Amino acid sequence: MKPLYMAQTETDFEEYKLLCRTLRRQRKRFWYIVIMTGVLLVALAAIYWAEKNLTGGIILTACAALYPVLFVLFDHISLKRSYQQNSALHGLVTTLSFYEDHMESKSRLGHSSLAYNKLFRIVETDTHFYLMPAYNQAYMVKKANCGEGLTDFLREVSKTIPLPKRQVFRRHRRF
Question: Strands 102-107, 5-11: parallel, antiparallel or unpaired by DSSP?
Fold first, then answer.
């Protein structure tokens, strides 16, 4: 059977970094922790300043000011290390073939097929589509490499994917 659309993506560090950051952006818990840590540092610094503890106030104010810079720096170092350790990704060219009801992926690492209804989510950014079979995995489709009609096709496919069911945690009282 002939595919409706095809796209190729080559993985380099910049593509890998965009992928990881997009996947991370989907996890709200991660960002809550990052923001709450910053708020906690500012609150502790305010408490130290109110208590007239200049040394602690200065240290915590400096930490609160440097926290965003250090976060971005450590994030970049972590992504770089992760990419360098996974040498199979270096220069990996992946060809995605899109059919009516499924997609196929081919690279030097192997071949896979995935039905669209098995996708967790499709995330569209300004430059890419990320087809996510799980919350921590994605196939990259660079919009610049999309043939005519593929972007509209992927938008239509994303409308058919059911929203993930929210897990409701209820506190049960024991009598």
Answer: unpaired
The pLDDT assigned to 102 comes to 92
Side-chain half-sphere CA neighbours of 172 within 13 A: 2
Please check whether residues 95 and 154 belong to one and the same domain. Answer: yes
CB-CB neighbours of 131 under 10 Å:
25
Percent of the chain with pLDDT over 70: 90
- Domain assignment of residue 145, yes or no: yes
Same domain, residue pair 21 and 81 = yes
Which region, left, alpha or beta, applies to residue 164 given φ > 0 means left and ψ of -120 to 50 means alpha? beta
Global pTM reads 0.72
Separation in Å, CA 121 to CA 10, 55, 164 = 22, 48, 8
